[in-house]
Amino acid sequence: MAAYVRRPVIIDTDPGTDDAIAILFALGSAEQLDVRALTAVAGNVCLELAQRNARVVRDWADRTDLPVYAGCARPLKCDLLTAEDVHGVSGMDGISIPEPKAGLAEGHAVDFLIGSLRSCPPASLTLCGLGPLTNLATALMRAPDIKRGIAEIVLMGGAYFTGGNVTPSAEFNTFVDPHAADLVFWSGLPLTILPLDVTHKALATPERIACLEKTGNHCRSTRRADPHQP
């Protein structure tokens, strides 16, 4: 029987509570995923908070070795729309957020993506887009040759039957930078798109929350009590 090969992944993200949970799940799946780096992009919050939150989540997972790169601070052609009404001013309101233990990796996220994809074997690296696709689209525009290194782009974006969460038809990640989404969607690369329809099936039920709280890990220990709850 052939040995299982871990999938090399770069996670492009704008944490946000939703992305924070996704990153933790990815880093907790070390037998399946070889997460090489986190690249931050403006979206749920501004870039400064997104990269800070990515480094905090990395700390929670005891992965201070994992590089975090700061990327694009605004969409390709639009003004930035953020989502403090959903995620709070910090992007992760509701918990005590410590200062990150380690700094940012040197260099721009787009340059890191280009360098990584140029140096990796053909069709070997999976890009996971959890926020607006500005970093990925910019990398593809600057260096079209990097397509050779991409095995697949897996992204959360769009909506089908459920409708949008910004307008009746538009989902946040694609709405924030529609020009970047258009470029990635028409890139010809293998895409796996997980729309709102899928995320709405992954509910944070009281039973699931209770199970997570029993783990006793860093995320649990830094949770701040809600004064409005009994």
Order of helices and strands: EHEHEHHEHEHHEHHH
The CATH homologous superfamily name equals Ribonucleoside hydrolase-like
- How many strands in all? 6
The proportion of residues in beta strands is 5-15%
With strands numbered from the N-terminus, the spatial order across the biggest sheet is 3-2-1-4-5-6
CATH class equals: Alpha Beta
Helix and strand composition category? alpha/beta
CATH topology tier name: Inosine-uridine Nucleoside N-ribohydrolase, Chain A
Radius of gyration: 17 Å
Q: Report the sheet with the most strands, covering strand number, pairing sense and barrel closure.
A: 6 strands, parallel
Instruction: Note poorly predicted spans.
Output: 220-230
**What's the average pLDDT?**
91
Tell me the CATH architecture. Alpha-Beta Complex
Helix content: 25-40%
Per DSSP, the total helix count is 10
